[in-house]
Amino acid sequence: MSISIRIRHAVVIALAASLILGAAATTAAVPETMSLQGVATDASGARLPDGPHDLTVRIYDGPDGSAQELWQEQQQIQTVQGQFHVILGSQNPLNLPFDQPYWVSTEIDGGGEMSPRIPLTGSPYALNARSVDDGAAVTSLNGLTDQVTVTGNGGITVSEVGSSIVIDGAGGSGGDSDWLVVGDDMHAIPTGAVGIGTDAPEGDLHVHDDGGGTSIVVSDLTEGVGFHDAYIQLETPFGNSRLEFFSAGSPPQSTLSIHGGGGEDEAHIRVGGRSLTFDTEDDIAFEFGGTERARFNDVGQLVLQDSDETTTTMLLNGNPYGRAFLFQSDADEGLDLSAGGQYGGHVIGSKADGGTGFFLRAERSGTNEGGMLSLSDGDGSAAVLLQAMQDGSQGTAGGQLRLYPRGSTTETVTLEAQESGASDQGGQISIHNEGGLATVVIDGDQNTTDGGAIQLRDASGDVNVSLRADASGEGRIRTDVLEITAGADLSERFDVRAVADSAEPRPGMVVGIDAERPGELTLTARPYDTRVAGVISGAGGVKPGMLMGQRGSVADGEYPVALTGRVYVRADASDRPIVPGDLLTTSSTPGHAMAVGDHGRATGAVLGKAMTGLESGQGLVLVLVSLQ
User: Fold this and answer.
1) What is the pLDDT, as a whole number, of residue 573?
2) Alpha-carbon gap, residue 619 to 589, rounded angstroms
């Protein structure tokens, strides 16, 4: 669809007038937009429907296709009976110089550029007034615009000579030919001092305020090669301060000093109640509220004091090696932190009464060995001693921990990462009696066998009980007397098979040799069975005192079977009562014992002797197992 635009009004650009001297300021006030109004119709002349449409406007430097496009902008317009109004430059600034003829073209809703292009009239070219060509005019004088008047003061005369303005400093009274104006600069090389607000300058430059009595003095005191001394002094009716710079020595060393009161003995910087002072002793002191709280002295120390300036709270010492001291409220040393010394770096902590509470050394004895930590008890004696290395008869061994009783220097517990006096052996723990003798020793690698061992020793140091995990390839316990207090029988492990239609094996049941399974047992189920072997232990709360077996062999099984000793047995007194002292044998009740009634048949079938009785029925009877 072809669309035409009839321009109802000439293109108008509204510009504000600008002043030559104020071009830099007035340029920003010149609008860089122009108004475009028109009526949009289709090819038949009918006006476009009301609503939004996309409008593209272009500016060229010529009317035909060979012209160069200089500017373009797209906007959305709202037509009312085909009429529209847009402000060009609101999306893309009109930054053209408007110093030559321009042509405008339009395009609506992407229907293609319409022709012919419309030439701009003269009004837009007023945009050229927003700038002035270089060299065409003076645009400002020191930022001043409009009417500018140049006047002289203090003996300075201003006159016009042709097209020149002449400023003369020697024409009036009080002038000084030392002052020169070169371009934007004005300077002087006076032979004397310069005073501002005073006719008696106290330095090279003296600025004085008559009203408040405050002055600034800048002075170059000494001239000469290799030495320069200058200061700025602030003077008030209440005192003066000086900022001084000088260099001295060979090569020169620069120094900056700030004097709070103008004195020569101390240099200090003070802000409110806080002060930094450099005194004649080469010390640096910090004050708060008039009280010295910190000081760097000439021997490399930093001293911190409390608020009363009476007690040192911390001392840092940089000579001969770094060291820090922290003090308690009563001035007693609380903590000593050292970076070097006989034992390398160390930390010493003191108790409230001044005694040593702990110390930590980087070297245990100063011979390039491991570190050491010592904790003291209330009496000041070592209570815990931890060493990264210890001395053994075959050289330095592994780490060691020692524990001491209160007030004693005799260790009671020793933990060693490597057994003393033995090479290539594991750790050891020893517990000592009050005389220092090791009575309990736990060895992680005894006699280079790689097996652990526990030794219990008497007061003479002799080993009375020895438990070794690897003695000739076997574990072994050696002692004169073995007392067992947790059980009352000697048992071995067996697998036990239930007889047909009987209950599963349980503690207290009588078992016999299983003829069908070598090395295993079965519940007995016939009277006077000569294959009787013992009783499953654990009934009545009586457990095995000693349990034997060999894993992975025929001498192993699920149930502990008492072969001798005291054990509760399940008994059947249905045929005759059981009284203490009766011999017990197997019965027809599976897993149950009964009293022997036929001694001829009992030979080889006796389980043991009853120690308790059972009048009738079934129950538990304590028996002393003794197979016969």
Assistant:
1) 96
2) 12
Beta-carbon contacts of 441 under 8 Å, excluding residues fewer than 6 positions away, are: 428, 429, 430, 431, 453, 454, 455, 457
State how beta strands 593-595 and 618-625 pair: unpaired
Asked whether the beta carbons of 430 and 463 are under 8 A apart, the reply is: no
In a domain, 136, yes or no: no
Residue 80, domain CATH: 2.60.40
Q: Give the span between the Cα atoms of 603 and 195, in whole angstroms.
A: 143
Same domain? For 157 and 34 the reply is: no
Q: What is the mean pLDDT of residues 359-378?
A: 71
370 in a structural domain: no
Question: Does position 483 have pLDDT exceeding 70, yes or no?
Answer: no
| pLDDT single digits (tens) 440-461 | 888 766 665 567 778 788 877 7
pTM of the model: 0.45
Measured distance CA(117)–CA(60) in Å, rounded:
9
Sign of CA dihedral 538, 544, 548, 552: positive
Statement: residue 409 has pLDDT above 90: no
Q: Is residue 499 part of a domain?
A: yes
Give tens-digit pLDDT for 11-40.
322 222 222 223 333 444 556 788 888 888
Q: Is 114 helix (H, G, I), strand (E, B) or coil?
A: coil
Q: How many domains does the chain have?
A: 5
Residue 153, domain extent = 149-191
| Contact predicate 290/273, CB 8 Å | yes
User: Do 476 and 527 sit in the same domain of this protein?
Assistant: no
Q: Which of 586, 577, 606 is nearest to 526 (CA)?
A: 586
Sheet architecture: strand order including 51-60: 69-79, 51-60, 103-108, 118-119
Q: Looking at the DSSP assignment, which residues form a beta bridge with residue 268?
A: 277
